[in-house]
Design a protein that fits this description.
The complex is probably composed of two ATP-binding proteins, two transmembrane proteins and a solute-binding protein. It is a peripheral membrane protein. Residues 33-269 form the ABC transporter domain. Helices cover 35% and strands 20% of the residues. It has 384 residues and is of the alpha/beta class. Among the domains are: 56-251, Rossmann fold, CATH 3.40.50; 274-340, CBS-domain (Roll). The radius of gyration is 23 Å and the shape is globular.
């Protein structure tokens, strides 16, 4: 059931209150009751408060936040591993929250795939059999299962390892299997919950590169959860930052770095290498009328790369051109240096949560399964 166009996702006024009767406390939370007050007075835990995000189709939407911010809770609402207490999850005009069990089963099987931090591979299956598992659930003929699986096994760099078992692979190789399994399903939405967080730094960077290379071709709608700012800035077409279950800021990487919403975000981005993040169109002077210079750079070029072009040029400014070669603006050396400079003097902000994390009450239909079992939870959900 392949999709030709990646779907958009819109989260609207999403609330999640963990507890026996979260619905009864939504209005109090909307009226301003804090997470600490809710827990102290009712024994319920506020997971998400009034989250709204518009995720464009075919783009990488990063959800970033520290531990306890609600980012993993949020991503599980997209495929309804968690049901919201209030709000909507609208995918191409359809509210997933309102799907009946059969429609939800079809949605999970054909429109979403998930990659987890703990790999969630089946230990008794080799690489090939792990990769075809979702296709088995879909009921595809065996030949098509193997053909799709082998194509993605090769694409993620595991050709020749088809008969190996998870305990024979490194962590990075196991995560490649998880990625191949998700891609083999041909689902237009890819959910990645801290997918690379358990990997060593060099392997993590390598996996980021693999994902970006694949995304150039497949153009899926990817929701990527991370607590790492460098990873968010490298992968995200758009970034949303959560704190204590609330949205602090969302926008492009340039929005986050150049225009932090408050001191909390400013502290996050204080030591970012801005020259590798900000593109020339983010700081150029727009316009088409000035006399052209001898040197040009394409829109999307980073400031660091533009500075290198200027270093080998006799000019002190560059024309910025679009994909068709049309001039859309000009950027000067002064603008580049000013934008690359790390801002000073901003009031430091603590990045620790303002309220202590409180575990959700032990209620069977609300709490999350252990991380090591989450893969099985998805399999059960997909199987209906």
């Amino acid at each position: 059931m392949p999709e030709t166009t990646a779907p958009s996702i819109e989260i609207r006024h999403l609330y999640k209150i963990f507890g026996a009767n979260g619905q009864a406390h939504v209005e109090a939370v909307k009226a301003g009751m804090t997470k600490a007050e809710l827990n102290a007075k009712t024994g319920h835990v506020l997971g998400l408060r009034d989250i709204g995000i518009a995720m464009p189709g075919g783009a990488v939407q990063v959800i970033m936040g520290l531990s306890g911010s609600g980012k993993s809770t949020l991503i599980r609402h997209v495929n309804r591993l968690i049901d919201p207490t209030s709000g909507e999850v609208v995918i191409d005009g359809t509210d997933v929250v309102k799907l009946n069990p059969k429609a939800l089963q079809e949605f999970r099987r054909h429109r979403t795939a998930m990659v987890f931090q703990k790999f969630a591979l089946l230990p008794h299956r080799n690489v090939l059999e792990n990769t075809v598992y979702g296709l088995e659930i879909q009921g595809l003929p065996r030949a098509k299962q193997v053909d799709a699986a082998m194509r993605w096994i090769e694409r993620v760099g595991l050709k020749g390892f088809e008969q190996k078992y998870p305990n024979q692979l490194s962590g990075g190789m196991q995560q490649r299997v998880g990625l191949a399994r998700a891609l083999a399903n041909d689902a237009p939405i890819l959910l990645m919950d801290e997918a690379f967080s358990a990997l060593d730094p060099l392997i993590r960077t390598d996996m980021q590169t693999v994902l970006l290379d694949i995304q150039k071709d497949v153009r899926k709608t990817i929701v990527f959860i991370t607590h790492d700012l460098d990873e968010a800035l490298r992968l995200g077409d758009r970034i949303a930052i959560l704190r204590d279950g609330e949205m602090v800021q969302q926008g492009t990487r340039q929005d986050i770095v150049l225009r932090p919403a408050d001191d909390y975000i400013a502290e996050f981005v204080r030591h970012v290498n801005r020259g590798r993040v900000i593109a020339v169109e983010g700081v150029m002077t727009p316009g088409r009328d000035a006399v052209p210079t001898a040197a040009t750079v394409a829109a999307g070029t980073t400031l660091e790369a533009a500075a290198e072009v200027l270093a080998h040029s006799t000019e002190d400014a560059l024309d910025v051109v679009d994909g068709s070669g049309e001039r859309i603006g000009r950027i000067t050396l002064r603008q580049i240096v000013a934008a690359m400079a790390t801002p000073h003097g901003a009031k430091p902000a603590s990045v620790a949560p303002t309220e202590p994390d409180v575990a959700p009450p032990p209620i069977d239909d609300e709490t999350l399964p252990p991380l090591e079992n989450i893969g099985r939870s998805v399999v059960r959900a997909q199987a209906g």
